[in-house]
Amino acid sequence: MVFWIASVVGLAIAYLFGSTPTGYLAGKLLKGIDIREHGSKSIGATNVLRTLGKWPALLVLLVDVLKGGGAIVFARWFYPWFFTLSFVTPPTAFDLQTWVPWAVCLAGLAVLLGHSRSIWLSFTGGKSAATGLGVLLAMSWPVGLGAATVFGVVLTIFRIVSLSSMLAALTAIVLICGLEQPLPYRLLVIAGSIYVIVRHRANIQRLLAGTEPHLGQVA
């Protein structure tokens, strides 16, 4: 019982990492506004750029990336440490090498869910792209770097953040499947990338209609 309780606690901590509403807090602290009532009404760095300016947006982007990376780093530390405790008795089918990759996978999903469904914002939130990048960089830096590169190239050419984010997510799927990675990591990247793309469904409709705003424009 202690094993399962502590496992759930670890996932809850990862969720709370993601739940920290960075863009919302930036709006409140810097201008006393609810950023969800301005621009595209998102709490992400793109809307922070439109509403608050370049440096707040850069800070929000950095913190959102660190949230994702922090959750993975925490999971990789917490579960091996937890296994060393004398009063912990894992199920006989589990060993450290088997359980930790799955725990990291679940922590990654938890932090993405936390960012998009924050407990502090009545279970609303952002699209989890930046937080997903943090997850990728901490879990498999070649995959994260590849996704970030595609994001940067597409953004430079088209100046559309949503398109860049979705193509980066698809790139992550291709890279994680092409590289030697544990099965849980592959499943995490596939599920997380699909989740990020689904969170962009309104952007997809605007892209198809030709009305999606470019970087710096008001949505």
Task: Write structural notes for this entry.
This protein has 219 residues and is mainly α. The protein contains ten helices and no strands. The relative contact order is 0.13. The mean pLDDT is 92.
What's the short story on this structure?
The protein contains 10 helices and no strands.
Task: Please give the structural blueprint.
Blueprint: H1 2-19, H2 22-31, H3 45-51, H4 54-83, H5 96-116, H6 129-139, H7 141-158, H8 161-178, H9 183-199, H10 201-209
Helix content: over 70%
Main sheet characteristics: none
Number of helices: 10
Mean pLDDT: 92
Features:
219 residues; 10 helices; single chain
